[in-house]
């Protein structure tokens, strides 16, 4: 990605994050914008979001639907704040990196707990056999 497109993506990320906070839809959860990728022709901006919740497996579909429905409004608001000739169309996607990271952390925690349990069982078994 060129430096110009990266700067545009960073600016879109900041602006969209601020605009999302202004949306007053009850279906919209706690959404954070984790990244933006602008297409080479600058026609589209893929906005990657995460939805935070009490549980690790939060249902992100309603929040994503709200954001995709509000994409036109958000694009219009971006047009007022960005100093570019053409405002890219926004497409919202769920960023699965956080979910995959949480799943990997849970698996690591589970494996370490299993290892420590095995070590404890081995130590207890060796003490009783002596």
Strand-residue proportion: 15-25%
Q: Tell me the total number of β-strands.
A: 3
- How many helical elements? 4
Cα distance spanning the termini: 66 Å
Kindly report the spatial arrangement of strands forming the biggest sheet.
1-2-3
Layout of strands and helices, then pairs:
Elements: H1 3-22, E1 30-38, E2 44-52, H2 61-69, H3 71-81, E3 89-94, H4 97-129
Defining key terms:
4 helices; 130 residues; 56% helix; 3-stranded mixed beta sheet; alpha+beta
Would you kindly provide a brief summary of this structure?
By secondary structure, the protein is α+β, with helices and mostly antiparallel strands. It is built from four helices and three strands.
Structure description:
Helices cover 56% and strands 18% of the residues. It has 4 helices and 3 strands; from the N terminus they run αββααβα. Strands 1-2-3 form a 3-stranded mixed β-sheet, covered by helices on one side. It is elongated, with a radius of gyration of 22 Å.
């Amino acid at each position: 990605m060129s430096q110009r497109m990266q700067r545009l993506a960073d600016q879109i990320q900041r602006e969209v994050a601020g605009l999302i906070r202004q949306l007053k839809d009850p279906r919209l959860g706690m959404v954070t914008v984790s990244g933006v990728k602008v297409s080479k022709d600058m026609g589209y901006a893929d906005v990657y979001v995460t939805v935070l919740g009490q549980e690790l497996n939060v249902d992100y579909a309603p929040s994503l639907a709200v954001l995709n429905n509000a994409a036109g409004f958000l694009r219009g608001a971006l047009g007022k704040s960005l100093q570019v000739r053409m405002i890219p169309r926004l497409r919202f996607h769920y960023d699965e990196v956080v979910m995959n990271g949480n799943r990997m952390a849970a698996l690591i925690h589970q494996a370490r707990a299993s290892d420590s349990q095995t070590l404890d069982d081995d130590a207890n078994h060796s003490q009783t056999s002596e």
